[in-house]
Amino acid sequence: MDSFSPYENSSNNGFKDEMKPVAIISQLLQDVTNMRDIDEIFMWIASALIQRVGMKSVQAWAMQVDSRGAWHIKLRASSSQNYFQGQQMSENAEVSTLVARLIRERRGILSIPVSNIFSQYQATILAQQNCQYWTVYFLSRDILLPPTQREFQREEIPTPLQMAFSLFTQQPLEASQARAISFVVEQALRIAVSRGLFASTPQQQTGPLPRPAEEGPRPVLAQIIPELIQVTEIDQAENPFSNVVMIPEKRARQMYSLIDGKKSVAELAFLVNMNQKEILEVLRSFVRQGYIKLRDARGNLIETSTIL
Questions:
Q1: Is residue 2 part of a domain?
Q2: What are 90-106's pLDDT values in tens digits?
Q3: Mean pLDDT value of segment 111-135
Q4: How many structural domains compose the chain?
Q5: Cβ atoms of residues 78 and 86 within 8 Å
Q6: Spatial distance between the Cα atoms of 78 and 85, rounded to a whole number of angstroms
Q7: What residues have CB less than 8 Å from 145, skipping those under 6 apart?
Q8: CATH number of the structural domain spanning residue 258
Q9: Residue 88's pLDDT band (boundaries 50, 70, 90)?
Q10: Are 180 and 281 members of one domain?
Q11: d(CA 283, CA 57)
Q12: In a domain, 110, yes or no
């Protein structure tokens, strides 16, 4: 999912040869051989959008989940035309709060005047830096984003890719610029996937196989995958109302509707904006009422008493 239209060949119109999106990606294909982690790709994208597509300041923000199931927004890369701009954007609470909201709502925005969305004080500072318009390019993919390498924290785990590129410009984006952003970001992600810079599976314990389940480590809550328990035809014949699920609380109903046997607890918590305590209570309720069963990342059934 992304927030702009797909790139078309006509998006090259209006760009000098070295600034054409295809030329930008050709350069990335040469540079990527020296890159070792995904944040180098994000930084490369941000710098390329500054130097070749006319952005004033670009930041890459992503959702990050920890082993307790809690999530927060993390800055993965930042590039600006001058140092002061970079500090303003990367340390700005208003920007990070609004980006977090847009990621939670799974949407982007296109060339909104900063005076329409930021406080008067913040909009004035941005305008002084020629950052008059704000664009956010949202994307999500069914791949796992590894924790940052430069500030690695053991409790952080690979997280389903939900991220946004925050872009400040002096003028509203032209259609060719919007298409170029989409093309550069999407192609760069494909290159990163082909280079193996994303995590292929959730973190797994390395070393010898664990001993019997009662002696092995408890499953990590964030990586557990809930699965709906299907009502059999026999059960329904004996009780026609056995397949009626009554869930009074709104967010719990939303979470139930999102359970598909593929989404992890971390993904569900993010989508319905629940903290660890809240999602534990909902999971316990669903298990107690026989609505769900739990599986680990490898598809093995989990004894609920070991995790809930």
A1: no
A2: 567 888 888 988 888 88
A3: 90
A4: 2
A5: yes
A6: 10
A7: 38, 62, 64, 158, 159, 160, 161, 163, 198, 199
A8: 1.10.10
A9: low
A10: no
A11: 42
A12: yes
